[in-house]
Amino acid sequence: MPLTRCQFCTAQPLREVAVSRWRDDPEDRERITIELCGKHLRRLNKAGDKGHKHLGQFYKAGFW
Ligand SMILES: [Zn+2]
Fold first, then answer.
1. Separation of CA 7 and ligand 1 centre (Å)
2. pTM above 0.70, yes or no
3. 12-51 as b/e, with b when 16 or more CB fall inside 10 Å?
4. Alpha carbon of 50 to ligand 1 centroid (Å)
5. What angle do CA 44, 46, 49 make, to 5 degrees?
6. Which phi and psi (to 5°) does residue 26 adopt?
7. Alpha helices in the chain (DSSP H)
8. What is the predicted pLDDT for the residue at 10?
9. How many angstroms separate the alpha carbon of residue 53 from the centre of ligand 1?
10. What's the pLDDT score for residue 49?
11. What's the CA-to-centroid distance between 24 and ligand 1, angstroms?
12. How far is the centre of ligand 1, averaged over its atoms, from the C-alpha of 28 (Å)?
């Protein structure tokens, strides 16, 4: 049984995704990969360029 969980909740991840993460300045972002469940993968994609906010940090799909 895999120990990985969705980055944003306790659900089992659907897949690993490459994201940009930042706190205040989108230009000052780090590029990481995180595990996401189906629900949060949809939310991330829906949030688009403004990013999905979670615990004071923003997440956006892709490294650009
Ligand atoms: Zn989730």
1. 6
2. yes
3. ebeeebebbbeeeeeeebeeeebbbbeebbeebeeeeeeb
4. 19
5. 75
6. -60, -25
7. 38-47
8. 97
9. 13
10. 93
11. 23
12. 25
CA of 11 to the centre of ligand 1 (A): 5
Where exactly are the structural domains of the chain? 1-41
CA 29 to chain centre: 13
Mean pLDDT of the residues in the chain: 95
* Structure confidence at residue 2 (pLDDT): 60
Averaged pLDDT, groups of 10, the chain, 64 residues long: 86 97 96 98 96 97 90
Per-residue confidence (pLDDT) for residue 3, from 0 to 100: 79
Q: Phi, psi (5° rounding) for residue 14?
A: -80, -45
Kindly give the distance from the C-alpha atom of residue 56 to the centroid of ligand 1, in angstroms, as a whole number: 16
| pLDDT value for 64 | 79
